[in-house]
Design goal:
There is one protein chain. The chain is α/β, with parallel strands linked by helices. It has a domain at about 5-185 and about 225-255: 3-Layer(aba) Sandwich (Rossmann fold), CATH 3.40.50. The protein contains 10 helices and 8 strands. An 8-stranded mixed β-sheet has the order 3-2-1-4-5-6-7-8, sandwiched between helices. Helix 4 links the parallel strand 4 and strand 5. Helix 1 (about 15-25) crosses helix 9 (about 225-235), helix 3 (about 65-80) packs across helix 4 and helix 4 (about 105-130) runs parallel beside helix 6 (about 155-175). The longest helix is centred in the middle third of the chain and has 28 residues, at about 105-130. The protein is globular.
């Protein structure tokens, strides 16, 4: 077991993707700190890991504040004597289109996803530096943060911000030998259950059956366990040379996301005045140069289209 003797914190790990990450880390030998806002959910997750022969403890706290981050690191040290791995998975959704989104909707999502990642990473990195630990930090991004998605202003901002922080932290942590990466999961979750496009895949998963190949291969959409292997690998010594990356995982697919790069570059002596832009707009801004936005899905094969809603 490549993570034997290591200690990991996984925020938001009482259920779903976070629990899958925690169970895989434990399966690879790490002792795991489970985190959830619900004590009963956290205790059940600990029991599952222990039933599988792993070691786990729980810290019940809403991620976001510095106090919660300190409690998580202290919980790892008190229970297992140290800390080597941090996975920042905790998150919530408050999906609404822009004009319907309230300040509270925006602030809650930013606080848990973005500030929670910031505060937990800051606390973990401080521990790593103070104790000469060449730790591993794995943050959780989203395709929404990479591409945008209707009704998710708050979530898109948080997830894009996480990747921006990862690329900054990779520079700041390099000298200490600490790696930091972002995993972009594409998997069946409570959120995807509500999307008709994924109905057949989610139903198959809930029946304990393999998802249709179209979802797993063409879309790179799978189960939580399909993502967990990447999280555990990035936490291992074998991934010591991988940092500052955004890596997608889902179904049968693995992707390394590129940095945003200039799609076209044009020069003009004297610079680009308003008049010059008007004169050259057709050449500068057209279907070949303007970039797409939003997540793009392939058309579903007929046999995988969702069942029509029953008539009322």
């Amino acid at each position: 077991m490549s993570l034997s003797g290591k200690v990991a914190i996984v925020t938001g790990s009482g259920q779903g993707l976070g629990l899958a990450y925690a169970r895989e880390l434990a399966r690879q030998g790490a002792a795991v700190v489970i985190n959830d806002v619900n004590a009963e959910t956290a205790a059940q997750a600990v029991a599952e890991i222990e039933a599988d022969g792993g070691r786990a403890t729980a810290v019940v706290a809403p991620v976001g504040s510095t106090e919660a981050a300190k409690a998580l690191v202290a919980g790892a040290v008190e229970a297992f004597g140290g800390l080597d791995i941090l996975v920042t998975n905790a998150g919530i959704l408050r999906d609404k289109s822009l004009l319907k989104m309230t300040d509270e909707d925006f602030d809650l999502v930013i606080n848990v996803h973005l500030k929670g990642t910031f505060s937990c990473v800051r606390e973990a990195f401080a521990y790593f530096k103070d104790n000469n630990v060449q730790g591993r930090i794995i943050t959780i991004g989203s395709p929404t943060g990479q591409r945008g998605n209707f009704g998710q202003t708050n979530y898109a901002a948080a997830k894009a911000g996480i990747v921006g922080m990862v690329r900054t932290w990779a520079l700041e942590m390099k000298k200490a030998g600490v790696t930091v990466n972002s995993v972009i999961p594409v998997a069946a979750t409570a959120m995807t259950k509500t999307v008709p496009y994924f109905q057949k895949a989610v139903e198959a998963d809930e029946r304990g059956e393999a998802m249709p190949s179209f979802f797993r291969h063409e879309l790179g959409f799978g189960t939580a366990d399909d993502v967990a292997g990447l999280v555990a690998f990035l936490a291992s010594d074998e991934a010591a040379n991988i940092t500052g990356q955004a890596i997608g995982a889902g179904g049968d697919r693995l992707q390394v996301w590129s940095h945003p790069e200039a799609a076209t570059t044009e020069y003009r002596d004297g610079g680009w005045s308003y008049e010059a832009l008007r004169e050259n707009a057709g050449e500068l801004f057209n279907g070949d140069t303007l970039q797409s936005y939003g997540e793009e899905f392939l058309p579903l094969p007929e046999e995988l289209k969702p069942e029509p809603a029953p008539a009322r």
